[in-house]
Amino acid sequence: MKSVPLHVRVPEYLSDKLNVESADSGTSNSEVLRKIISNHYTVTENDIYNSNKFIYLTSWIFQKKGFPQDSSNKQTLIDLKNITLEVIKNNSLPSNLMEEFEKLLFDLQRFIAAYGTENNKFRFCVLYHEDTFDYTGLADYIAYKAFENRIQL
């Protein structure tokens, strides 16, 4: 495969971080950047959990905690439903979280079907309701994955 040069400007602090990472790994800056770019564009089975889509979905889930009303447009809700489907189809979450995302999917589908009707509220985010999402379980999973993957917090 042919390589082509790529010229970019970055802030000095990013250049410093790149130099440190290169020195720590015993490779060149170019090799570190190739790996970063390749990882960004390579799709693997578990990429959904490292994607901006997953961050968006989980942020939305936590934002909804205790607030069953929603003013999102229908397309946004459909996008959230599709991300939830991707998470479920990936099938690499622990079974307890798979059940939570299935519960979320069901509630999103119900909400979308009744979109625009009066008193249409989510059930997954009503605290102490039988359908309440397990926020603690998701938070624990995210923390576990962060340490497992050695993400710098």
Structure in a nutshell:
This protein is mainly α.
Topology of this protein?
Elements: H1 12-25, H2 29-41, H3 52-64, H4 74-90, H5 95-113, H6 135-148
Helix pairs in contact: 1-2, 3-4, 4-5
List keywords for this structure.
153 residues; single chain; mainly alpha
Report on the architecture of this protein.
With 153 residues, the chain is mostly helical. The chain has two domains: 12-41, no CATH class; 47-148, no CATH class. It is 59% helix and 0% strand. The chain is built from six helices and no strands. Helix 1 packs across helix 2 (29-41) and helix 3 crosses helix 4 (74-90).
Given the structure, what is the number of helices? Answer: 6
Kindly state the mean pLDDT as a whole number? 87
Low-confidence parts: none
| DSSP strand content | under 5%
| Count of domain modules | 2
Give the C-alpha Rg. Answer: 20 Å
Number of strands: 0
Structural class: mainly alpha
Large-scale geometry: elongated
How far the N terminus sits from the C terminus, by CA atoms, comes to 36 Å
Major beta sheet, specifics? none
Question: What portion of residues is helical?
Answer: 55-70%
Order of helices and strands: HHHHHH
